[in-house]
Amino acid sequence: xxxxxxxxxxxxxxxxxxxxxxxxxxxxxxxxxxxxxxxxxxxxxxxxxxxxxxxxxxxxxxxxxxxxxxxxxxxxxxxxxxxxxxxxxxxxxxxxxxxxxxxxxxxxxxxxxxxxxxxxxxxxxxxxxxxxxxxxxxxxxxxxxxxxxxxxxxxxxxxxxxxxxxxxxxxxxxxxxxxxxxxxxxxxxxxxxxxxxxxxxxxxxxxxxxxxxxxxxxxxxxxxxxxxxxxxxxxxxxxxxxxxxxxxxxxxxxxxxxxxxxxxxxxxxxxxxxxxxxxxxxxxxxxxxxxxxxxxxxxxxxxxxxxxxxxxxxxxxxxxxxxxxxxxxxxxxxxxxxxxxxxxxxxxxxxxxxxxxxxxxxxxxxxxxxxxxxxxxxxxxxxxxxxxxxxxxxxxxxxxxxxxxxxxxxxxxxxxxxxxxxxxxxxxxxxxxxxxxxxxxxxxxxxxxxxxxxxxxxxxxxxxxxxxxxxxxxxxxxxxxxxxxxxxxxxxxxxxxxxxxxxxxxxxxxxxxxxxxxxxxxxxxxxxxxxxxxxxxxxxxxxxxxxxxxxxxxxxxxxxxxxxxxxxxxxxxxxxxxxxxxxxxxxxxxxxxxxxxxxxxxxxxxxxxxxxxxxxxxxxxxxxxxxxxxxxxxxxxxxxxxxxxxxxxxxxxxxxxxxxxxxxxxxxxxxxxxxxxxxxxxxxxxxxxxxxxxxxxxxxxxxxxxxxxxxxxxxxxxxxxxxxxxxxxxxxxxxxxxxxxxxxxxxxxxxxxxxxxxxxxxxxxxxxxxxxxxxxxxxxxxxxxxxxxxxxxxxxxxxxxxxxxxxxxxxxxxxxxxxxxxxxxxxxxxxxxxxxxxxxxxxxxxxxxxxxxx
Length: 854
Prior knowledge:
With about 850 residues, this protein is mostly beta strands.
C-alpha cells in the first residue's frame, strides 16, 4: 500500500515508497536506488536494441506494428477516458490538475474523424474520479476533487447520457472519494473502493451501487488500501485486488467480506502507477483466471509478475520484463490476446527518463512472451490514457507531469496483425450483420460474414474506461461458435462473472490472426426484454424558482413487457434527496444552484430506463421580473378564453398576472424564465383603452409593462338582463317583469316575465355601441311554464319563435340570426305567441342577450 503521499506546488499527488526527509529531500538510500534503476534501464534497453530494435526488424510493420500521430490536437487534458457504445470517447478533465482552473472541462473525441467536441462545463470538479460504463451504456462518474493541496474527495456521482449528451447528478456516496477504483460486478452492480474522503483520509469502505435503487450500506475493509487499487472480477464472482501494494486479497460481493492475504508479490515493494491486466477468458482455457502486473514504483521497475488464481494456493511469479522501466504507464488488451504496454518513465513525472519503447506481451503463449511494439513519439507520463478502438487500433493520449501543461498530441498504434508480410495492410474479415444486437448468457446469436470459413476465433472486448495507469473495465472473453455458409453461429458467454453485463466490441479473427472491424453488442441478463421508459409528468418543463420554494413532482412509466415495479427519483441537494414513489409531491430547494432531477423506472424483468428523463430546476435569487412584450396585445370587449403570451425575463414558477378591472385572469402559467402564458376573459363592459399589466413572482417581486394591453370596443356585446344599468324594460301589458336568482345562470341571476296569456310582451332597451349587422343570441332558463316567444326589433321579426319549454330547468342559448341595428338605444320586444302543449303557462325568462357584429 502507499506509504507516503507528497504534495508539491507544481504537481498532483505523488504515490511513492521513496523515503523523503522532513524537508522533502530525497534520502541517500533513494538516490542509490535511482542510480541502480537507471543502470537496469540502460542494460534492458541495450538488449532490446540488440534483439528487437535493429533497422531490419523496425522495418517490419507486421512484426512491430506502426505508430502514427494524429493531426488534431486534443484541447483538454484527457485524465479520464471511456469508450462509449456509439464509438466515441468521453473525456473527463475537470480542473485538469491545475488549481487556478475553475472551469470543469469535459468533451468527446470521435476516433472516426479524429475530432473533438467540447462539452458543457460541469458544476463540480470530476478531476481524479472513478469512471466505468454502466450496463445500459452510460458512463458513471464516482467522486472527484473537493479540494487541492491537501486533496479531499467528493461524495458526488453523475452519469453521462450519450443520447442527450448531458451529465446528470445521481445519488451521493456515503463519503468522498478522490482516486477511487470502480468495478462493474457480475450482476451489473458497481463497486467503489478506496480514494481520499471529504476529510483527506483514505476511504477503506466498499460501497455497491445498483441503478434504480442507489447505494447499499458501506462495508469497511479490515485493511487500508492504496489509492486507485487494481481490481478484477473473477469467474467465481469475487473481486481480486492485485496492487499496488504487495499483499493480494479477494472481496466477495455476495457476502460483503474480504479474504486475508492470499499471495505476496515477488518484487517486494509496492508498484504505484504500474498497471494490471486480467488474462483472456476463453472456453479453450476453461475461463482460467490469471492476472499480470506491470512496472510501477519510483524509480520504476521493468519487471512483471503473473498469478494463477485457478489453483488452490495462488502465488506470484515473475513474467518477462518490459523493455524499459515504467511508472504512469498504460497496458491495453488486444483482441488476439496480447497486451500493449507503453509509456511511463523511470522517474515519476520526469520526461527526461520517459519510456518511449512499447512492448507486446502474448498472454496466450505459455510461457508468456514479449516482443517490441516499436516506439511512440511523445512522453506519456502522469494522466496519460490508452484505449482499444473498434478498428482494433490503440488510442494513446495525454501526459501531464507538470501542472498547467499537458501533452496535446494523440497517437494511434496499429498492431502487427493489421499488416501482411510485405508491410502492406492485411485483408481483414468483415462483419455484414449481427443478430440480435443484445445477446444473453448461454443464448445463441449469429454473425453474418462472407469470411466465415476462415474465422478462427471470435472475441468480446469490454469497452475500456481508463485513468491513472489502469483500465477499470477492459476484458477479453472468447466465444464458442460453429461455421455455416456466410454465417457464424455463436453462443453467448456463460454468465456475468465471466462477462459482466454491458457493451462489448465483437471481433472476428481469421486464421492469419487478422481482426475484423468490430461491432458493438450489448450483453444482458434479459436480452429479449425491451427496457422500460419513464416520464416526468410534473413539472412539464424546466423551471426557475427562488430559494426555499418547492416544486411538485410526479411521474409515470411504461414497459413493453411486464410492468413497472420501481421508481427512483434523485433530487440531489433538495429535500427529500430521493424518492421511490411514482408521485413524490413537493420537493424543496433551499439553496441557489442548478439541479438536474431524474426519474429512473424499473420493470418486472429488472431492467431500467437506459436514458432517464431529466428536469432542470434553477434556484436563484432572481431580479424582479420584467415584461417586454404581449402577444396579442389587444382584445375585444366580451372576448372569452383569450390566450396571451407574455415575453420577458426572470419569470419564476407559478406567477400571478393582473390585467385590471373588467378582465378576469383564468390562468397564468409558467412556460420558461422568459415566457408566461395567460388566459383571460374580457367583460363586455370592460372600459376600452390601454392598460398596465403586472406579473408577480412567487418571491413577491413584481414587474409591469405600461399600456401593454388594449381593450377594444367589442364587436360582440353581452347584456346581462338583470343589470339596470344595461337595459330599460317596460311591460306592454299586465304581467310582472322581475329579477330572480338561479344557479344555472352565467352570473347567478336573470329576469322573468310572469306571463299568463299569448300576446303579452316585454320590451328591453339596449344601447347599441355602433351601427351594423348583428347576430342575436339570447339565453333562457327553459322550464315547464314557459311560452313560445318571438323577438321583434323595430317592427321586424328576428328569427322564428323560440319554445322556452322544458320538462325541467335547463339553461338554453338560442341563435336567432342577424338583424341590422342603428347606434344608440334600440328596443328588443319579446312577445308570447303561444305555448307548448305540455307547458303550464306563458312565462318568459332571460339570462343574457348577446350581440355579435358581423
